[in-house]
Amino acid sequence: MQRPAPANLPPLPEAALEHSARAAAHLRKTISAASGWLPFDHWMAEALYAPGLGYYAAGSVKLAEAPEAPGLPGGDFVTAPQLTPLFARTMARQAAQILKQTGTQAVLEFGAGTGALAAGVLNELDALGLTQTRYFILEVSADLRQRQAERLAPHGGRVQWLEALPSSFSGCVLANEVLDAMPVRLFCWSASGQVLERGVALDAAGGFVWEDRPAPAELAQAVAARMPPLPGYVSEINLQAEAWMRAMGGWLENGAAILVDYGFPRSEYYHPQRAGGTLMCHLRHHAHGDPFTACGLQDITAHVDFTAMADAALEAGLQVLGYTSQARFLMNAGLMDLLAALDPADTRGYAQAVAPVQKLLSEAEMGELFKVLAVGKGIREPLIGFARGDRLGKL
C-alpha cells in the first residue's frame, strides 16, 4: 500500500473543505461496502459523479472563461471554447460540411461545458445559412446545464437537453474533452510479468492508499493486447470510453462525430518511457497527480488512447474518417481565414484575438497535445479538417 506524493495545492475556502470532507466520507463508505478495496474506475466514477458530492455532480465552478486581464480566471481549467470564439466558429465550419453532405439538420454535443461551443457553433451555422439546425446537448452536470441554459436562451427551442443517449441520431456529433473524463482502470506490471489492477483501499487512519491485486482475466487480456510486459510500468486503460465508441455504432445512423481531446496513438501512449501513466488532476488551474486529495473538488482525467478509440469505432461498423493534431485540424477547417478577416488596425482587439489562437495552435501548448478523431457513417467525401496532415497511418 502506498499513497501518491502529496500535492502542493492552492488554499481552499472553508465551505469547499467541508464539501470535500463529505465527499471523502462517501468514498470511504463505498470502499468499506466493497470489502475494503475499490477498482480505480469505480473510485473515479464516485469522485466525479456521485450525486451531490462528485466533482461533476455538485455545484462548484469547474470551467473558467478566459481572463481579460493577467491572472487566473475562476474555475479549475480553461477549455478551447472558453479561450476564443474562433474555436467554435471553426468547428462550425466542419459541422456545416457534415450537415450539408448528409442532408441533416442536427448537432449533438456531449458535455457542453459553459455552452460556449454550442453558442459559437449555432451563431456560425446561422451565418453560413444553416438556420434550421437543431442543437441537442447531453450533460451530466446540473450546474453546467444551468449555465448552458442561460447562455443559450437566445436560441430558444432550437436547443434541447437530452436525459440519455438517443436510440438513433443523424447529423454532426461534437465531443470536446469528453473521453478524458470517463473513468479509467489502472494497471501495473509485476516483477514476474503479471498484470495487476490498481485499486483504492484505506489505511489504519482511514486515508486513501493504492493497493494492487491480480487483474481479472478480461483486464489482463486487454492490457497484454496493448503492450509487452514491463515490470513496474503503471498506466491506464479506458474500457468505458471504448464501450462508448462501440455504442455509437448503434445509434449514429448518418453523419460524423468530431472528438477533440488530449492523447496519443497507442505506440506513444504505452511507450516504455511513459512508465507512470497519464493520470492527472486539475484544481484551481493547478495540475497535479494526487487523486486522493480535495475529493469532490477537483477534476480527474487521463489521456486518450486514440488507437483504441479508432479500433472500437471500426468494430462498431463506423468509418474512421481522420485523425490529426488540433492545430492541423483547425487550420484545415478555416481558422486562419477567420483570423485574416479581423481588422489588424484595431491593435488591441486584434492582439486579444491572436493570443489565444497561438495557444490553440502552438506545439508547446494545445496544438500538438490535443488531437482530433473523426468517425461516422454515410460520409462520402473527405472532411475538410483532415485535408492536410492526416495521421490515420500512425494509429
Task: Describe the 3D structure.
The chain has 395 residues and is of the alpha/beta class. It has a domain at 80-182 and 239-283 and 298-394: Rossmann fold. Helices cover 36% and strands 22% of the residues. The chain has helices at residues 14-33, 40-49, 80-83, 85-102, 116-127, 142-152, 217-224, 239-251, 266-269, 306-315, 326-333, 335-340, 347-361, 366-369, and strands spanning 38-39, 106-110, 134-138, 159-162, 169-176, 185-189, 195-202, 208-214, 234-237, 252-264, 280-283, 286-288, 299-301, 304-305, 319-325, 370-377. The strands form 3 sheets. Strands 2, 3, 4, 5, 10, 14, 15 and 16 form an 8-stranded mixed β-sheet that branches. Strands 1, 6, 7, 8 and 9 form a 5-stranded antiparallel β-sheet that branches. It has a 3-stranded antiparallel β-sheet with strand order 12-11-13. A hairpin with a 2-residue loop joins strand 11 (280-283) and strand 12. Helix 4 packs across helix 5 and helix 8 (239-251) runs parallel beside helix 10. The protein is globular.
Strand-helix topology:
Layout: H1 14-33, E1 38-39, H2 40-49, H3 80-83, H4 85-102, E2 106-110, H5 116-127, E3 134-138, H6 142-152, E4 159-162, E5 169-176, E6 185-189, E7 195-202, E8 208-214, H7 217-224, E9 234-237, H8 239-251, E10 252-264, H9 266-269, E11 280-283, E12 286-288, E13 299-301, E14 304-305, H10 306-315, E15 319-325, H11 326-333, H12 335-340, H13 347-361, H14 366-369, E16 370-377
Parallel strand pairs: 2-3, 2-5, 3-4, 5-10, 10-14
Antiparallel strand pairs: 1-7, 6-7, 6-9, 7-8, 10-16, 11-12, 11-13, 15-16
Helix pairs in contact: 4-5, 8-10
